[in-house]
Each structure stands twice: as structure tokens, then as C-alpha cells.
Design a protein that fits this description.
This protein has 302 residues and is mostly helical. The chain contains eleven helices and two strands, in the order ααααββααααααα.
Length: 302
């Protein structure tokens, strides 16, 4: 039996897990489903592409691929800068659009506003960059044996490691820093946290920055292993929410496990049933989890 789908599923699952972590973090603190998160993923990919081009025009050596990977240090540096920029973009969206609606307690209005922001950002990306796919590199990578007959490219292995490091860093931040403890308190009870002296506004700003940075990292990963398109974040939105709900809204380890399950399920479906069934897998898993265990595998707040 061909087990290559396991390696493909882990790579896809790592990308989904990063995005799902941002979704579950935002939902836990802000109390609404941000459907513009997919467009933050797309914006992160394009910002990295633009910054990498700028860095490359200044330092041509930055475009030389770092063996054995397909990209140079310019893309890596651009990705770090773009993570900050995407976090600031998420913060700007909240300041201009979401904050007043959240303050008024109009949860449905906030969700609808996120839909509007999603469409606006997606249309803007398509106008500026067109719908033509873009790539960080045209270098051809050959998949090499990893273990148990599985094969993966160096870029894919790098992305799995980076995703694991980012999720682990977030988990440590939430459990071992004052900011993390404040975020968990706000997640449990914002009013009580405010009475207890916690700066809720600071926690919310930190949440948008972290969520946007994770979305950007997910977009960079998609750009490296697939391609960059205005619709790439929108196409990933259902798997993101399915992974977040599967793992349990508010659980960072749950988002990681949920992302891996969705990624593996999609890869197995492509191999056994065909690529045309892939889009339905996340939806089927989501419905099944809502019917059997609505609280998710790890029901907890941050």
C-alpha cells in the first residue's frame, strides 16, 4: 500500500494547524469567528513576496538558495518582517472595523463585518497582483526518502519543523508568561479579568498581533510548497475552522492535532477517492464532530 499520503498529509496539516491556532486564539479572546483570517494568510504570503523582492534588489546574494532549500535567506528575513506587518494589519482591521462592534455586543454584526473585510481584502489582492499564481522560487526540488518509505522535499521538512516550533512557542507563552496568563484570564472571563487589574485592551492587541503573525507564517508555508494566489487563504478557511473545532476552540494543542487530522484526511482522500473529493473532507469532519462532540477533542480555554 502506498503510504506517501502520510508525508503529504503532515505537511498540509502543519500549514492548517498554524492557521487554526490563529483562529482559535482570536475566537477565545474576541468571542467571534473572524472569517477575514483567510485573507490575512494571503496578505502574509504576498507581503513576504514583495519584501523578498525588495531585499533581493538590495542584496543579490539573498536570492541565492540555501542548500538544500529552494529559497535564500532573503525570503526567510522577509517572512519574519511580514509576520510583524500582518499582525499590524490585523490590529488595524480591529481598530477600524471590529472594535466598535465588539464593544456594542453585536456579535452577528462583527461576524458579518469579517465577511465584508474578507471580500474586500481578497478583491484588493486580485486587483493589485491579478489572479496569476506567484512563486517564491522556481528551483526544482527532488523529494528524498525520510523514513518508512516516505519521501519529502527539504522545504517540506523545514516547514513542518517551523510550524512545530511556532506552536510550541505559543504554548509556552500562554503557560509561562504574564501575558499568557492574562490572555487565559481574559479568555475565561473578560469582565472579571478587567476587575482584577488586567489590561484587557493590551491582551486584545497582543492577540491580533500573534494571530496575524501565525496567519502570515501559514501563508509563507503555502507559498513555498504550493503557490501564492489571492484565493489561497479563502480556500483554506473551511479546513482551518474544521481543525479548530475538531481540536476544541481555545486549545492550542487541539488546533495542532486537529490540523494534522484534517491534513491527513485530505491527503488520504486524494489518494483513495480522487482530488475532486478533497474539498468535502473538512466539511464532513466538521459536521461529524459537531454531532458527536461539539466541544472538540480538547475542550478548554487557552
Amino acid at each position: 500500500m502506498n503510504t506517501q499520503f502520510i508525508a503529504d498529509g503532515v505537511v498540509a496539516g502543519a500549514t492548517i494547524a498554524l492557521g487554526a491556532t490563529g483562529v482559535t486564539l482570536t475566537y477565545s479572546i474576541m468571542r467571534f469567528s473572524n472569517f477575514a483570517h483567510g485573507e490575512l494568510i494571503s496578505c502574509g504570503g504576498y507581503l513576504t513576496l514583495l519584501l523578498a523582492g525588495g531585499i533581493g534588489s538590495i542584496a543579490t546574494a539573498s536570492a541565492v538558495p540555501i542548500d538544500p532549500f529552494s529559497v535564500g535567506w532573503g525570503v526567510l528575513a522577509a517572512g519574519l518582517i511580514a509576520m510583524i506587518a500582518t499582525g499590524l494589519l490585523a490590529l488595524l482591521l480591529d481598530a477600524l472595523l471590529f472594535r466598535r462592534l465588539r464593544g456594542a455586543g453585536a456579535s452577528i454584526s462583527v461576524v458579518m463585518a469579517s465577511f465584508g473585510a474578507s471580500m474586500a481584502l481578497r478583491a484588493l489582492l486580485e486587483v493589485v497582483f491579478t489572479s496569476k499564481p506567484a512563486y517564491f522560487s522556481r528551483e526544482l526540488e527532488i523529494a528524498t526518502p525520510v523514513a518508512f518509505g516516505l519521501r519529502a522535499t527539504p522545504d517540506q521538512l523545514l516547514l513542518v519543523v517551523v510550524a512545530a516550533v511556532l506552536v510550541a512557542a505559543l504554548y509556552l507563552l500562554l503557560g509561562h508568561t504574564s501575558l499568557g496568563r492574562s490572555m487565559r484570564a481574559v479568555s475565561e472571563n473578560p469582565a472579571l479579568a478587567r476587575v482584577g487589574g488586567i489590561d484587557v485592551g493590551r491582551v486584545e492587541r497582543a492577540t491580533w498581533l500573534i494571530g496575524g503573525a501565525l496567519a502570515c507564517a501559514s501563508g509563507v508555508m503555502l507559498g513555498l510548497v504550493v503557490q501564492i494566489r489571492p484565493f489561497m487563504g479563502f480556500d483554506l478557511l473551511l479546513p482551518l475552522f474544521a481543525a479548530a473545532i475538531l481540536g476544541g476552540i481555545g486549545s492550542v494543542p487541539g488546533a495542532l492535532i486537529g490540523g494534522l487530522i484534517i491534513g491527513l484526511s485530505e491527503a488520504a482522500t486524494v489518494q483513495w477517492l480522487g482530488a475532486e473529493w478533497r474539498a468535502g473532507v473538512a466539511f464532513a469532519v466538521l459536521i461529524a464532530m459537531l454531532l458527536v462532540r461539539p466541544q472538540g477533542l480538547f475542550a478548554s480555554r487557552l
